[in-house]
Amino acid sequence: MKNLIQVAIDSPAAAGAGTQAKLIAKYYKLFHLDTGKIYRFIGKLKIKHKNKFNYLLIKKEMKKFKIKNLSDKSLLSNKVAMEASIVAKDPKIRKIVHNFQIKCAYHPPIKFKGSILDGRDITSVIMKDAMFKFFITAEVKTRAFRRFKELKSLKRKISYNDVLKSIKKRDKNDYNRKYSPLKKTKDSILINTTNLTKKACFLKIKKIMDKKLKI
After folding, report:
1. Measured distance CA(47)–CA(161) in Å, rounded
2. Residue 143 dihedral angles phi and psi, to the nearest 5°
């Protein structure tokens, strides 16, 4: 079995982790999974099947789940995001998602040189023994502005203050939930993107990885 590169990233909402994960995945030829979007996918299921939403439905949908499902732009809505933070508190739902994440982390498709997962409990729960562990963050107002610009580019009618309020509420849910709360593990490298461009952040992470990989 070939030695796989495994990268785990945790971050609060809109810190830039998803963008960096995509850049890292492309450069090192890694399989990428945005785990937060899986909970958004389930959050959307809850909205869509309000009166029929249950664990059996979730299991059924996850069995036929495809990564391309995560490209659905509607998953970026604030309503879906809030539902995602609520369903993510449910230990039974987390267990269902956990099994899928483990498969992606440790058994990526053979064409990839490894895997990179980003989310809220990747370094602390899903990939505890990952070769690289990062905690990416930024000031809350910076994160809110980034998400506001992203939503406006999608022609969403929403104010910056609404986004800021939503981000703060999600932070509270993520950091304080009973099961798998968002936290920086001792062995994770802190990357603050508040004053970093996307390129500068990527180069900072690349330097760390190349040193260990001896590239």
Report:
1. 24
2. -65, -40
Q: 211 lies in a domain?
A: no
Classified as helix, coil or strand, 104 is helix
Number of domains making up the chain: 1
Is 210 a member of any domain?
A: no
- Does residue 135 lie within any of the structural domains? yes
The pTM score is 0.88
Residue 47 lies in a domain: yes
- Per the document, the length of the chain is 215
Sign of CA dihedral 200, 204, 206, 211: positive
Pair 67, 32: CB distance under 8 Å: no
Instruction: Pull the structure tokens for residue 144.
Output: 């809110």
Residue given tokens 């370094």 in the structure block: 123
The 10s digit of each residue's pLDDT in 47-100 is 999 899 999 999 999 988 888 888 888 898 888 988 998 998 899 999 999 989
What DSSP element (H or E) covers 203?
helix 198-213
The CATH number that applies at residue 169 is 3.40.50.300
